């Protein structure tokens, strides 16, 4: 029951953030070409792709709490399998975005916000919710909810498909409208863009494997604890 409450609360917070952004935040884009991009140009940012992944995960997590199972099991129902696969993606993106965002922000915040007016338009609480809080939320989920990570090949395939879809989308927008989502991309040569893309993909794989490893340690401890408790009860 407490796990369901947690999932519902996090889901509510994320949905509220997206609602607030769509109704009250007006980002001053640097050129008029951004006005041609669907969904108020929000989907050009990896942050919003990540938020959608988090929302989808917590929706499925709520459904699993109600009709599935959170028990340690080798043969989980379908909804639990979907939840576990989505978690591997949600964890990786929730680690990647805060590290990438705040690293670039500390190096030079104009890489993220082209001017101070753009930064002022986003309330601090919303900025931190999208770029900071997603990490502790998913870490809490990692430690309080049992899960079976998918086979590494399957999990990494899902992750790289998402990365490829995002990369393809922003390149499509560049070749059609001549725009990039982040200012620093205008400063990079095509060679450096390729290096950055490959490096980002490798970082994503690394973060995926970190989540997989932590989860395996947690699952091992949980199984050992259950075995110890069962042994004592005989």
UniProtKB/TrEMBL annotation:
It catalyses: 13-(9Z-hexadecenoyloxy)-octadecanoate + H2O = 13-hydroxy-octadecanoate + (9Z)-hexadecenoate + H(+); 13-octadecanoyloxy-octadecanoate + H2O = 13-hydroxy-octadecanoate + octadecanoate + H(+); 12-octadecanoyloxy-octadecanoate + H2O = 12-hydroxyoctadecanoate + octadecanoate + H(+); 12-(9Z-octadecenoyloxy)-octadecanoate + H2O = 12-hydroxyoctadecanoate + (9Z)-octadecenoate + H(+). One of its GO terms (cellular component) is membrane. Keywords: Membrane, Transmembrane, Transmembrane helix. It is found in: Endomembrane system. It is a multi-pass membrane protein. The chain crosses the membrane at residues 41-64, 85-105, 125-144, 156-174, 194-210. The keyword Membrane applies. The keyword GTP-binding does not apply. Belongs to the AIG1 family. PANTHER family: ANDROGEN-INDUCED PROTEIN 1-RELATED, AT02829P-RELATED. This is FAR-17a/AIG1-like protein.
């Amino acid at each position: 029951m407490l796990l369901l409450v947690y999932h519902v609360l996090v889901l509510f917070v994320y949905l509220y953030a997206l609602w607030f952004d769509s109704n009250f935040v007006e980002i001053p884009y640097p050129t008029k070409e951004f006005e041609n991009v669907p969904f108020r140009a929000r989907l050009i940012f990896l942050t919003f792709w990540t938020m959608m992944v988090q929302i989808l995960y917590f929706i499925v997590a709520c459904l699993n709490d109600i009709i599935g199972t959170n028990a340690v099991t080798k043969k989980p129902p379908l909804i639990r399998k979907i939840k576990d696969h989505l978690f591997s993606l949600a964890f990786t993106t929730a680690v990647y975005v805060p590290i990438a965002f705040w690293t670039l922000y500390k190096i030079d915040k104009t890489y993220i916000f082209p001017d101070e007016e753009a930064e002022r338009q986003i309330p601090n609480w919303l900025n931190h919710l999208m770029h900071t809080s997603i990490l502790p939320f998913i870490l809490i989920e990692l430690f309080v909810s049992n899960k079976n990570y998918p086979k590494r090949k399957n999990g990494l395939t899902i992750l790289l498909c998402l990365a490829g879809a995002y990369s393809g989308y922003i390149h499509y927008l560049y070749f059609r409208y001549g725009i990039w989502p982040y200012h620093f991309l205008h400063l990079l040569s095509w060679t450096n863009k390729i290096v950055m893309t490959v490096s980002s993909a490798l970082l994503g794989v690394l973060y995926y494997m970190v989540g997989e490893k932590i989860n395996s340690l947690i699952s091992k401890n949980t199984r050992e604890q259950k075995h110890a408790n069962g042994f004592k009860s005989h």
